[in-house]
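Researcher: Let's do a round of design. I'm pasting the structure tokens now; please hold your answer until I've finished.
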């Protein structure tokens, strides 16, 4: 990614089925929402799901397994999940309505 994904931007992730797009997006979401002290960006995430593949269960599994010291308590996982806003986008109109 040559330096990462710039914060505050809209980034489209594309590729063939099964190549890890959803996994990458879930992991990036966790890192962005983590507190600064845990190595995150301490920010909210807008996750635009165009393939209906978002899994809250998988997101929490990634967070708990990747950062076990931070997510010792269930409350930490709950706080993380509240920082990630998920919108299902099925067409151009639903995308533009998200911005309004």
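Researcher: That's everything. Go ahead.
Model: Designed sequence:
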């Amino acid at each position: 990614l040559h330096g990462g994904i710039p914060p505050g931007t809209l980034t489209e992730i594309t590729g063939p089925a099964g190549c890890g797009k959803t996994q990458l997006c879930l992991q990036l979401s966790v890192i962005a929402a983590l507190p600064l002290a845990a190595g995150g960006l301490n920010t909210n995430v807008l996750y635009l799901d165009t393939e209906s593949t978002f899994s809250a269960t998988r997101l929490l599994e990634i967070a708990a397994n990747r950062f076990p010291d931070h997510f010792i308590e269930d409350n930490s996982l709950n706080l993380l999940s509240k920082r990630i806003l998920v919108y299902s986008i099925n067409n151009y109109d639903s995308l533009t309505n998200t911005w309004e």
